[in-house]
Each structure stands twice: as C-alpha cells, then as structure tokens.
Amino acid sequence: MSSAPLQLASLSGVEAAKRAAAYAAVDAHVGRNDRIIGIGSGSTVPYVVERIVQQGKDLNASRIFLPTGFQSKELIVSNGLQLGDVDCHPIIDVTIDGADEVDPALNAIKGGGACHLREKVLAEAAKNFIVVADYRKNSNGVLGTSWTQGVPVEAAEFAYSKVMRDLTKLGGKPVLRMGKAKAGPVVTDNGNFVIDAPFPPEQMAKPKELLQQIKLLTGVIEVGLFVDCAKAAYFGNNDGTITIKTVDGKVQENVTFDVSKAPVVA
C-alpha cells in the first residue's frame, strides 16, 4: 500500500480528534484477516468507515459489514461496502461502535440513539469490541456522571407501564422517551419503546449487578449497560490528541496520530 499522504478535508478541534481516534482504532484493530466487521453508530463512526475504505478496494471486496442501525447501514451502502446481517454471520471478527459514556473499566452506557439491542448483539458476537468516541464520553467516575439521562431500557410496548413501575421499585426514576420530531414515544427499529431510567450513583457503581436486575424484569427487551464487552476505547480530545484505554487498565493520554498517512494493515 502506498505511503503517500492522503488528501483529507480539513478539520479542527474535536472533529479532528474524533477522526484521529477513529483512524487509530481501525489501524490497531481492523486487520487483513478480519472479514466480518460490525459497524456501529454515532458521530465518530463515519470516520471509522472512512479509514476502512482507505484500506483499499481489494481488501474490502472480501469483507462483509454488519450494521447496528439505519445510520451504519447507510454508511456501508454509500461507501460501496458489502452489506451483511448477523443472522448469516453470528461470529464477528471486530465491531467498532460509539458510546454515550465509558467508565475506567470500559463499561459503557449505550442507547442514546435507541439502537442498543442490535448494538449489544453485534458487540457480544464480536471477538473484539472497540469503542470510539469523543472526550465527553470518557468518564473517570461511575457511569451516569456525564450521561445523566439515565440507563436506556428497551421494553415491549404493551408492558412499558409495568416496566416503569418495576424500575421505580429498583430505585430508578424512569421516564418514557418521547420523540422530538413526532408526537408520542420513540419507537425502536424493533417496534418497542425506550425508557430512560436514572439510578443513584451507588447503584451505577455496580453496573453488572444493575444490568442483571433490570434484565430480569418481564417486559424488558434489552438494557443499555454494556458490561465486560469492550477490549479498548479511543477518545478524541478537544486539543486534537487522543486517549486510548484498554481492558487491562492501561491508559495512553495525549497521543498524536497523523491522519495524513495511509493505513498500515496488519
């Protein structure tokens, strides 16, 4: 592959850092032998796809890309990549997705875009699940510190009222998520409702326990707590650098990445 500089649109600030984080994540985790790739959602993911495309048509011709929702499906199709489905490819080499908040142990809140059921399926089906986001999603405390809207809970439409009562009994303050450009509740791609349930910090400090408690409620389809899933997280900082965290507890801060260089595919 040529090492000639790439011709890229000029970006600054956090957008430049998000691109750098996405490029670094792809270079580190999307290798030559990765054939089934999950593509998530969020404002950083278009840069993930951009970098994958730069890896070359010949390499991507033998790959299949699985979307977590409408945005990622459109990214895959518009970039001429081969669209697949988890029904046909239940084992994924790597999934790269965004997040609403990530704690120091790489546990995450996802579901701000109401896609967390499919996002979790693709995350858990992947040999490697990688998060790419901006610095605002990088929490040094418990989950819920920066993402204050609450834990996204997808619930069956006919059971949502019961689920809200159950979440209240667990200590949450559930609110049915309403549409911004439509009258009525948000409806997921699966035809369900989304409940946002803030919980006290002492419960959020034990995300695995809270996840299990919510998941056992009859009527709950999926919970936007992603626990013990991610292998690494890449954050674009406001000063243009990136922070890299891995599941073994290592943290690299103020990392610079030259996006003008062609990708090196391991």
Automatic annotation (TrEMBL):
UniProt-listed Enzyme Commission number(s): 5.3.1.6
List the InterPro entries: NagB/RpiA_transferase-like (IPR037171), Ribose5P_isomerase_type_A (IPR004788)
Q: Which terms are listed as keywords in the entry?
A: Isomerase
- Per the record, the domain of life is Eukaryota
List the GO molecular function terms.
ribose-5-phosphate isomerase activity
Protein name (record): Ribose-5-phosphate isomerase
Q: Which organism is it from?
A: Ceraceosorus bombacis
- Metabolic or biological pathway, per its Swiss-Prot or TrEMBL entry: Carbohydrate degradation; pentose phosphate pathway; D-ribose 5-phosphate from D-ribulose 5-phosphate (non-oxidative stage): step 1/1
